[in-house]
Amino acid sequence: MGTPYTTIYNRFLLKITDYSLTELPDAVVDVMMHGYLMSSVADISVRELREHVSEFDDSQDAFVYELSNLEQEILALGMVEAWVEPMINSITLTLQMVGNKQSLFFSQSSHLNALVNLQDSTRKRKRKLISEYKAFHNSYLGTEEEATKPEKP
């Protein structure tokens, strides 16, 4: 069996703080996390990785092959992007909320900007890792073993 989905889920959960997930039934959280993972796998930039990243077996809740640490990290970052996207597209953030004198003004614009910045920084980190991955697995450099050997003086 290859890398279980839970391995990627755990990496994803270490990158976010979402206490609302603990209030949901486990079955709902599993469906959400599976959706985030499938969004990450479907991402065009992730599909640039080796083909085995997109080979998975939902009946086993695992990838067909064992994924490297770097592949797991890239998928977890893709899950973060998928997790933040619904928050950015939320109607709550697009409606202006103004309260009376006793309530505080809630700035959706600031919150939305913070979410967009989070998404952008996550996307940049993921692209950087993909570039490193592609450089490491570049066929012009020879085999992976040859690419990792230090040069002789």
Number of separate helices: 7
Mean pLDDT: 80
Radius of gyration: 19 Å
* Percent of sequence in beta strands: under 5%
User: What gross morphology would you assign?
Assistant: globular
Could you describe the 3D structure shown?
This protein has 153 residues and is an all-alpha fold. The chain contains 7 helices and 2 strands. It has helices spanning 5-15, 20-23, 26-42, 69-88, 91-94, 108-136, 144-148, and strands spanning 56-57, 62-63. It has a two-stranded antiparallel sheet. 19% of the residues are buried.
Briefly say what this structure is.
This protein is an all-alpha fold. 59% of the residues lie in helices and 3% in strands. Strand 1 and strand 2 (62-63) form a beta hairpin.
Throw out a few tags for this protein.
153 residues; mainly alpha; disordered C terminus
What are the SSEs and their pairings?
Blueprint: H1 5-15, H2 20-23, H3 26-42, E1 56-57, E2 62-63, H4 69-88, H5 91-94, H6 108-136, H7 144-148
Antiparallel strand pairs: 1-2
Helix pairs in contact: 1-4, 3-4, 4-6
